[in-house]
Structures are given as structure tokens and as C-alpha cells.
Design brief:
This protein is α+β, with helices and mostly antiparallel strands. About 40% of the residues lie in helices and about 15% in strands. It folds into two domains: about 1-180, no CATH class; about 185-265, Serine Threonine Protein Phosphatase 5, Tetratricopeptide repeat (Alpha Horseshoe), CATH 1.25.40.20.
Length: about 270
């Protein structure tokens, strides 16, 4: 709420306290919707990051997730919350892991560099920059939509980024030029021959599991990679294999909302 007070002024209400209450209630509802959109679309963030980790030459400028941190503090009836960013993100289909980027303003129970573990429904936003283009930033765009042109310019200059149209949130790389990227990451399709050759040469790899019981099929389903999922099934991957938490690749695909993966695994 502090950002809105700074931008619009919290005291100049000419005694119209009720209007101020309504205004902040609307902002809270707007940010709540932005939080929900960020959570619902986190799958795109992870899919892009999944492929970024496979690149020899990095393409991303940065990738971060925003999370609320709370602490009950002396003199306050309610916990104090600060919404801060984490980076160095990893995701196992259930938990998001990262390191705190910000230095807390008031909180003393966390510090910059701390390792964080949260579920998707606990995040407030995600933000990614690829070759200068911004993706995500749902809460940021919600706030920018309430600013005038000069305020948006100041905001973007502070970030060193052009967030573009405040009424638009991009989800995937080159979304406007290639809307088909919403269905599948281009690297998933481009790597088809290499994936097929690898598993034909190393068939035992299809059934190998990592430390949390994930097969390659689990990980591809979590990332929404249709082409590689089909190839693995064709070459004999067992879709009924369960992770250490008792989940199949289909379970993860359903939880992530990858309907096109659900169709081939069901």
C-alpha cells in the first residue's frame, strides 16, 4: 500500500475518508488478482527457465519470483509483511527454491542471500527479462496501470527496464511474433532429433530417477514440453512411475495446468 500512498498521496482526501478506504480496497483487489494471475501462469516462467538452464550461452538478463515475508513484531498487532524478490530459482514441481535478493526494510527474521522454499500458491509475482524484453510482472503492471505517463517513466527508469503497455503482461518469449510459443517452447521442438537419438542410444536413461524420484518424463511434464514427452512415451518411458512424493508425470501435468501434456499422458 505504501507505493500507492507515495504516488497518489494518502492525506489529501479533503476529509473524504470513505473514498480513501474504497480506493485502497480497490487497489488490494487489483493486486490480489495480479497475484492470482502470476500463480496461474508460473508454469510459463518455469518452462522458460528450464530451457535457460540447458543453454550453453545464457539468454536471460534475470529471472526472479516475488514472495511475501512476514514477522510478528513488538508494537504491532498484526504481522509486518514485506514483498521481496528471490533469484537463482529452481522448481521440483511442488516447491520453488531461491535466494533472497532484497535487504529487508523492517524484518529481522530473514536477510539477503537466505535460501527460500515456497509453493506456487504462496508467490506474489514473477518477472523475467530476456534480451531486454520483460515478461511477467503482473503486480508491477497493475501498479503501473494506475500511474500517469510521467510516473511510469520514472518507475521504469528506476528499474532500468521498459515495461511497455501497463495493460499487457507477456508470458513467453516472442509471444507477439510467435503466439504458438504459448503452446510449446521452441527449443522443445528444435531439440526433438537430439532427444530421440539420446534415448535410443541410452534406453536405460528413460527409467532412471533423480534424488526426488523424478524421471526425465516427470521433468518434461512439469515443464510442459510436448515433443519430448511424446518421444519418451514412444520409446518406452513408463508413465506410471511415481516420484518420492507419490506423483506420476500425469499428476504433475494436471497440477501445472499443462492440458496438452495431460492429453498424451492420460
Amino acid at each position: 500500500m505504501g507505493i500507492f500512498k507515495k504516488i497518489f498521496g494518502g492525506n489529501n482526501n479533503d476529509g473524504k475518508d470513505e473514498e480513501v478506504v474504497v480506493f485502497y480496497a480497490e487497489q488490494n483487489e487489483m493486486l490480489k488478482r495480479a497475484n492470482e494471475e502470476a500463480q496461474n501462469n508460473f508454469k510459463y516462467f518455469w518452462r522458460e527457465l528450464y530451457w535457460e538452464y540447458k543453454r550453453i550461452i545464457p539468454a536471460h538478463n534475470f529471472a526472479m519470483v516475488k514472495i511475501p515475508f512476514g514477522q510478528k513484531m513488538k508494537g504491532h498487532e498484526e504481522p509486518i509483511f514485506e514483498h521481496m524478490w528471490i533469484n537463482n530459482i529452481n522448481f521440483d514441481g511442488e516447491f520453488i527454491y531461491g535466494e533472497l535478493v532484497n535487504v529487508p526494510n523492517q524484518l529481522t527474521n530473514v536477510k539477503k542471500g537466505d535460501t527460500v522454499k515456497r509453493k506456487i500458491n504462496e508467490i506474489g509475482d514473477w518477472l523475467m527479462c530476456i534480451q531486454g524484453e520483460v515478461y511477467g510482472g503482473f503486480t508491477i503492471q497493475a501498479m503501473r496501470s494506475q500511474m500517469n505517463d510521467a510516473q511510469r517513466e520514472d518507475h521504469d527508469n528506476a528499474w532500468g527496464l521498459d515495461f511497455g503497455n501497463p495493460d499487457e503482461v507477456l508470458l513467453v518469449y516472442q509471444q507477439k511474433e510467435h503466439p504458438e510459443n504459448l503452446l510449446e517452447h521452441p527449443m522443445s521442438k528444435n531439440m526433438a532429433d537430439q532427444v530421440r537419438e539420446f534415448f535410443k542410444t541410452n534406453p536405460d536413461e528413460l527409467q532412471k530417477t533423480d534424488g526426488i524420484g523424478h524421471t526425465f518424463l516427470h521433468n518434461e511434464a512439469i515443464a510442459g514440453n510436448l515433443t519430448s514427452t511424446r518421444i519418451m512415451l514412444e520409446l518406452g518411458a513408463d508413465k506410471n512411475t511415481k516420484s518420492n512424493s507419490g506423483k506420476t508425470a500425469l499428476d504433475y501435468a494436471k497440477e501445472m495446468g499443462w492440458n496438452h501434456i495431460v492429453e498424451v499422458l492420460a
